[in-house]
Amino acid sequence: MFFLGIDIGSSSSKAVLIDENKNILASAARNIGTGTNGPSIVVQEVLEAAGIARDQIQFTVVTGYGRVNYTQADKQITEISCHGKGIAHLIPGARTIIDIGGQDAKVIKLSQDGTVENFVMNEKCAAGTGRFLEVMARILNCNINELSDLSLKSKHDIIISNTCTVFAESEVISQLAGGASKEDVAKGADNAIASRVAGLARRIGIVPIVAMSGGVAMNPSVVASLSREIGEEITVAPHPQTVGALGAALFALEAYQKKEKN
Amino acid sequence: MEQKEKISSKEMLNNLMANHYKSAMEAKANGELVAWSTSIAPQELLETMDIKVVYPENHAAAIGARKEAQKFIDDAEGRGYSIDLCSYARVNIGYKNIQYADAENIPLPDFIFSCDNICHTVLKWYENLAKDLNIPLIVFDMPFNHTYDVPDHAVKYMKGQIEEAIKRLEKISGKKFDHDRFREVMEQSNKTSQMWKDASMVAKAKPSPLNGFDLFNYMAAIVTSRGTKEGYELFKRWKEELEEKAAAGLGPWKPGEEEKFRVMWDGIACWPYLGPTYKGLKNNGINMVTSTYPDSWTILYETGDVDGMARAYSSNYVNRNLNYGVDNIVNLINEFSLDGVVFHSNRSCKLMDFRQYEVQREVEERTGVVSVIFDGDQTDPRAFSTEQYNTRIQAFLEMLENRKEERRKG
To answer: Going from the N-terminus, what domains does chain A have, and what CATH number goes with each?
Structure first.
């Protein structure tokens, strides 16, 4: 039997296909999100990888900002619950999840049995989100994946004090004009995100094990900055970008089992 | 008279509000005095003097709900008022210049009546109005209560201001203050306050006969008509209707629409987005049963007791310390059998936001109920995202469902 989870974010689309024993059969991620053909591409990719047809899927759950407009799922569940579910499965015993996606950053507190107890999300702006890093990558004229390599080569600390992404953009441009190196600016951007997200995390209370999911978790220098900032080790989920989709697939399995029982 | 008693509270509310605005415009046209007052001020003094009063905050809320706040905000910001200033202030300052709204209209004031028991922005906002319009300014400074209860020295300070205000009113109006009439108004104000509170308390029934978004509508009348018999009659009728519904076991919505979860709303409404904020909850079976509004206008004291009156006005929850704020919400959770709390992080209201996270943390610790904070604004339409609100409310619902499931399993 097959269960599909789809996570349609603001800047990427992810899909995970599992079987009734929670084995991951296929997963896919594309860096185009809601409003694009990203969702249909990633669904097609996991179907092809597993060699099955769409109608063989017993239950589909969709999550992420694009969930509301996606009509081909049986159920929609928020990304907060899906990241909780995915992490509880991948990292048993995790109590705090830091998820930094394209449009928002959230910190989720899990109970001992892995259900969502509380959560906080960034307020009112793009500070501390993947969007902030995208803007920084653009100024540094590099690919977002290269930011981490740059940052790890940094020799001097630079402080980017503005939390507003637009202000930070001008701040960084003036620092570059003043002779700061690209490497130091990249590190400064990591630290800016880390301090912002750490503030969110402290508000909800940081309980180990601290796990991290979402696309930004693939950036080791941000993870290192964040870990230093909160004073806790951070366990990055395997394939962090698809944790939400995995959680959705796990919910799909549960929903199917519940339906069958009734 | 018979027929009058049969009309619904909703009609009574509409009539009362229509008359409130109309009579103020007429008074102004007839050369009578009109005051602009903050929303929880000692209106008893104005009622005693038979002076027409309108409430800029109420008016700004009506403009917000009508979705026309932006043009007034643009006007104020264009004149140099900061986007960080309270949006009620920006709407009102814009209205003072534009002087026409599709929602409702108020006449320009002849004097200002300002009480800072609700926030400190009003001090400068209203002072600014008085200076701009070159009219008298009466201020009641009711200091924030850092102690749990209102200290006696603060009561003394405020009583002195009430006495001074009476002298100022006599001078402004050229009329003598009638102390017998004052007692009557005090008595009426207490009766109306109590009836407002009693009506809102009917929502304790399960399911609640009250959809709490109605509180936002009826609130207009407790602001404008607390000192009047009409206000009392309205809330009495409303209470009867709610009691009838409760006795029949009827919930807040249409038959078949189940009240699955009961929550309270902390903070001011998000007026430009009443529909989305309401539907986001209702579509998930979440009923907002109560809020911090009912107690805000439950201003009770003994007739003739000016000390008690001063104390009551200073006792407004936003003027009380953190421990009181937490107790207040914990009590509501217990009294109304609530499952959760929705906190409106209101960009306009620094005073309310200032302690919100800590109140949330302590309330969760003491009661174990789940809660959620969403970002919005009381009237600035640019500071709210329906999608973000819905995601937060849906995640809140998922937590509520988890809790219910855990309780079911024991």
So the answer is: 1-91+239-262 (3.30.420.40), 93-236 (3.30.420.40)
